[in-house]
Amino acid sequence: MKNMRYILLAAVLAGGTAFAQAPAGAGGADFVMATASSSSPARVAAMRGLHQFAARFAGDAGRLPKGFPLDVRDVGQLRHARLGWGFQVYDVSRAALMSGADMEADAQPTGIWRYEVVLHGRPIGLLTMARTNAGWSMVSLGGAKLVGDIQDVVGAYGKQAATRFRYVRVPQATADFIQVKHGAAAAQYAPLQAARSALRMQAQAASGSGLLDGSALQSQLRKVLARDTSN
Q1: pLDDT at 167
Q2: Which of 65, 71, 131, 175 is 20 to 30 A removed from 96 (C-alpha atoms)?
């Protein structure tokens, strides 16, 4: 069995802003839908990385190594995998939140991009790219549960007119969200699995939409950060 060289996506979330100094450079919007047919350097490199990863397991068709990072039953299926939507990662720092700053305004781009990996129309994981001196490199492959969580939000709001998404993390609280913004209205947030766990809550609705208002969310995040002074 070939040695699997991958870093689970959870490690990237826990690592916070390890790549925060990398330039954004991918071009285009912060969240690019699959139908946008983006050909940014980051996406081109991500497709190449996915194909190389699939080729590494071509001889293992019919099997699934223990701990494999993508939601497949057979590594031979990877040759059919494609990329779907992609997004840049934004971070909000502990200092910004504790100072009462606005979460939407103070989210900073990290230069990390993540792409949905799709097999026959079904999301099976996330591929993470970071820019280095040698160009764009794949640094993570995994996130089978997270990609489904994000897809639920995209499916619920992605067809609404003038709607924009952004993926936002608060690394010190181990929490991440999809920011949903309708036109000029204030941004609202869909808490993902790690955020729901950190905030000890279910995805409570703002006006029944399944989204949280920014002010209420920031208040809850400050309480989480205040409880853990090691952050």
Answers
A1: 97
A2: 131
